[in-house]
Amino acid sequence: IKPWETRQLMSKRKGRPLFLIDIAVPRDVDPEVGDIKGVTLYNIDALEEVVDEHIEERRQEAKQAEKIVAEEVASIEEKFQYLSFRPLMALLSDRCERIRQREVKRASSKLPELTEEEWRQVEHMSRMIVRKILRMPMMKLNSAAGTENEQFYIDAMRALFKLDTIGETATSEERHNRYRYAQQ
């Protein structure tokens, strides 16, 4: 396709653009055709450049995606490192809550003259005391998560607060069996 042929065609198109793709080897469209106003010409070389640009853009996007995935994996790993402590924290919280409830109930029989509002205050105060007492051990457990001291703190908390995986209601036989198993 020659430039003069394209000019004739463009005069008949009344300003409408013309888009040509020449993938022939050798080329069928004269490169000067691309210089004509309203004509866009792509040849095999130009298409290869477009493909190369798109491939490079995809590589950059893939790198960005890899970075996002790595950040998310790190975030998930950070969350998972605390999972080993969750059951222990739950046991400790449950045990302290049961003790708190038992002591408030015991106090209620000794203080029958307290009003309902005063009992709400006693309940609230006892919850705050338990929460404040547990705050430091819980923070220490969290800070030890994922470190070489993690198991030490788990074992220490279990021993200090007499927590076992079966729970506070473990029978003496269950505790004895666990002790015997641990000695083996």
From TrEMBL:
Keywords: Coiled coil, Plasmid. It comes from the Bacteria. Residues 64-163 form the Tetrapyrrole biosynthesis glutamyl-tRNA reductase dimerisation domain. GO terms for biological process: protoporphyrinogen IX biosynthetic process from glutamate. Residues 44-79 form a coiled coil. The keyword Coiled coil applies. Residues 6-50 form the Quinate/shikimate 5-dehydrogenase/glutamyl-tRNA reductase domain. InterPro entries: 4pyrrol_synth_GluRdtase_dimer, GluRdtase_dimer_dom_sf, Shikm_DH/Glu-tRNA_Rdtase. GO terms for molecular function: glutamyl-tRNA reductase activity; NADP binding. This is Glutamyl-tRNA reductase. It comes from Selenomonas ruminantium subsp. ruminantium.
